[in-house]
Amino acid sequence: MAHVILRDITKRFGSVVAVDKLNLEVARGQCISFLGPSGCGKTTTLRMLAGFEDLDEGEILVGDRVISSSFKNYYLPPEKRDFGMVFQAFAVWPHLNVFDNVAFPLQIRGLSRAEIREKTTKALTYTGLLDARDSYPNELSGGQKQRIALARSISFNPTVMLLDEPLSNLDPKMREVMRFEIKELQKRFNFTIIYVTHDQAEAMALSDRIVVMDFGALIQQDDTPVDVYLKPANKFVFSFIGLSNFLDVEVADGKVFLAGARAAGPVTAVVPPHAAGKPPTLACRPAEIEMVPTGGVYGVVTRRVLLGDIIDYVVKVGPTEVRVQRNVRKPLFGEGDRCGLVFASLHWYDESGARVSA
Amino acid sequence: MTGTDRKFGIAELLLLFSVLVLVVVVAVPILLILWNAFVVDGGLNIAGVIQVLSQPDVFQAVVNSLVIAGAVTVVSTILGVFFAWLVSRTDLPFKETMKLLFLVPFMLPSFIGAIAWKMLLSPRSGMVNRWFIELFGLEQPLFNIYSLGGIIAVESMYLFPFVFIQVSGALERMDPTLEESARISGAGLLTITRRITLPLMLPSIAAGALLVALYSLAHFGVPAVLGTESGIFNIPTLIYQKIYASGGRFEAIRAGTILSSILVIAAALILYSQNRILTAGRFQVIAGKSVRPMLLKLRGLKYPLLLLSILYIAVTVLLPTITIFLVALLKTYGLSFSLENMTLQNFTYILFTMKLTRDAIWNSFYLSLAAALVTMLVGTLISYVIVKMRVRGKFLLEFLGLLPFSVPGTVIALGVILMWSGKFGVNLYNTAWIIFVAYIARYMAFALKSTSAALEQVGDSLEEAARACGATHWQAMKDVVLPLIKPGMVAAFFLIFLPALRELTTSVLLYGPTTRTIGVAIYALSEDGETVYAAALSAVALLIIVVGQWVIKRVTGTTKIGGGGA
After folding, report:
1. Does residue A174 sit within a domain?
2. Among B167, B19, B147, B169, which residue's Cα sits nearest to residue B71?
């Protein structure tokens, strides 16, 4: 059953269309991520959901309740929407201690003292803050502050939780820990999560469903994390979701060669469908190319950079440069060495950027 | 580095020089005041202090100062917070323009404002009062400006920007998600204002309010213009009164030092608490990501509130300014403002004929110019030692550097009288030099603030990079540091030059027969009933200020408001 419904929502700032006729349905208890470059309209969409921005066109429904509608000229202010929300910069109140921060929504709702105590304590327990309840935010780390924000937003049992890049201000280690904690909280309370991020790893780790957006909040792909990763719907998604090589190819004798490098050997014998003389672009991830001493597509290593566990190579095949990443423990190639490339996983995109299945 | 273990190098020399300047110019005068107030014949003299303080006029002046400062602080805080909230948290139309307009009262010297209000609201001859009496047949004047209430009202008009600047700045820097998170938690705008925004603004409000209190407590101009007539004295005006009435007798000086000590102690307490409030880091609310703050929709109140704001500016700035200019054009004070009663002769008279005003304009110009130049240069040097140099004994300079911030103008004047009246071998009394020395002490704080802020912007690595490229310490300073802090130095110059041009508080205690300044001349003309000449000279001063502000804006590229006193 659809829990949150966005219908044709549009938002303009002056002449800029920030969100252009976005349609989306989110099921109850689902965790959905809006993933896209900064400025693509994902945060604006979230702020319209929260009610901090009114919409110019369309309507938003939660459950069977309309909360924003340009047709009915209706707009429910944020304080009446009963959503939980977590912000990038934590937004915990420095003049209140941890307990009072978390108790604030309950006090606003006019709960009794005993109920406030009970629910706040519960929220603090689930977020591991019980021992810090008398501390002030400035005495705590970034991770702890974001826990306060989480505790505050779950304290009144909202059915919808909005998260606006909640982990971006944390260090990488803390980010990983918090990902799991958010997931745990969702399992326990079964709220619907709408999560905005520009970090694809975060989106992959947390979501049941990822919506990849380009400027104007135009949906590029709406899929499970696995499918977004394995079958990027177009060139934009492919390049956004990880490192990528986009390589021009030519077809001869029923085989595919890198453009201008027929002598180096064929990439594959499976030719994707295409109009005559217009083969699609080959896309592949640097980590999905194997380097072998003999065989494969012949090339020369022109650059080698150590990135810790991974070695990043640039291999020149004819006029084309191919980026390859492999584990540092595999046999090394030096700059100037010859090698063969074996392409493990191939994606094809036509001129318009759409996916072509081979 | 030469590799030798130098005990006394250039750094130590600069430190010594800086310390010496601050000791001679600021520290010794203050110590002399405290010494004269509390020590008689080498012994502590508490009984004498109590005896002076229990004289009825002294006691009354202390009470008046406290009452005026207290009331002005409350009124200015309410005005400042309200207008700051209006321009930064509501959808008031023309907000940016209004924000600039609310800073204008800062530029208007408050004693000139007081003179204008005297013209408008003095009980018998005030124009507004007369107008009301004639029009409505009132028995009593509408409002008597010669009263505590009048002094409080006029001071508040020109001091509220202290609070306004602090609070509107803090509201703009505040992370809007702090309010948004309260809103999504279910709180309405009123609850958010009461429980989130106001508590978070409290340090800024308090900081602004304390500045107002500090300023008002030691303020001379407005009480001098409006209080003397009906016998209302505050601490600075009583000091002036006593010293002039007695012709500089020791008893008067002693009473003055005791009153000054109260000001010094009060100022120190105020600055200490302000520092405590601002450095209590619990309230770091700087924004992470720039989101526009949510604005309260004023709806039906939008235009009434805009009108109120414009009316406020019109009444507090425009009305007094226009009054000054119109009166300056009158042939004789008291005539109606019709064209046949108007003349430019007052201006030609004060600019070219009258010796008093010609001297005053010349004195103010060269004194301000010299003081601004010297103070700016010495201030840059001191800031450089404090901010950039690693040298032993620097803490002494850091402490001395705080002193200029806490010394009111009256106290400085009294201090330099004690120091430079021949007791220590140098007698500058009745010369321009004594005013020059006093100006340096008075405005050193501005120079230190402006140049140290500029120096803190220049990362150490810039200078180090120059050194690494082979530049000597001096070359690095000349070719890298100086060009970078030049805007700060220019700003410091104008921040001193403009307020010094119309300085009153200090000059009025120090002027001699030939060393009147513009402020003193305006005050003297106004007190002598030469109202049209006072107005004409005030008009000239206002024009200079406007041109000066325009020059500052052109030179520094920003609007720097000189919060200097009259």
Report:
1. yes
2. B147
Residues of A in contact with B191 (CB under 8 A): 108
In a domain, A262, yes or no: yes
- Tokens 């770091």 locate to B284
How many CA atoms lie less than 13 Å away from A331 in the CB half-sphere?
A: 9
Write out chain B residues lying below 8 Å of A79, CB-based: 183-188
Helix B28-38 to helix B409-419 angle (10° resolution) is: 80
**B282/A95 Cβ within 8 A:** yes
CA distance A244 to A324: 10
Within 13 Å, how many C-alpha atoms sit on residue A332's CB side?
A: 12
Contacts of A85 in chain B (CB under 8 A): 180-181, 184
Domains of chain B: 11-54+344-566 (1.10.3720.10), 55-286+300-313 (1.10.3720.10)
Domain that holds residue A309: 245-356
Q: Name the H helices within A138-224.
A: 142-154, 172-189, 200-206
Q: What is the pLDDT of residues B502-554, one digit of tens each?
A: 899 899 988 888 899 999 999 999 989 899 999 999 999 999 888 888 887 77
**Do the chains contact at A52 and B180, CB–CB below 8 Å?**
yes
Residues of A in contact with B187 (CB under 8 A): 79, 104, 108
- When divided into structural domains, chain A yields a total of 2
Residue in this structure with the two tokens 């509201």, named with its chain if needed = B171
Residue in chain A nearest B181 by alpha carbon: A91
Q: What is the pTM of this model?
A: 0.82
Which letter does DSSP use for residue A269 in this model?
Answer: S
Question: Which of residues A235, A256, A284 is at a domain's end?
Answer: A235
Of A94, A108, A152, nearest to B282 by CB-CB distance is A94
Which CATH number fits the domain that encloses residue A293? 2.40.50.140
Q: Does the ipTM surpass 0.90?
A: no
> What value, to the nearest 5°, has the Cα angle with vertex B246 and ends B240 and B249?
105
pLDDT (tens digit per residue) in B94-120: 988 998 889 888 888 899 999 999 999
Give me the residue from B187, B199, B282 closest to A108, CB to CB.
Answer: B187
* Min distance A91 CA to chain B CA atoms (Å): 5
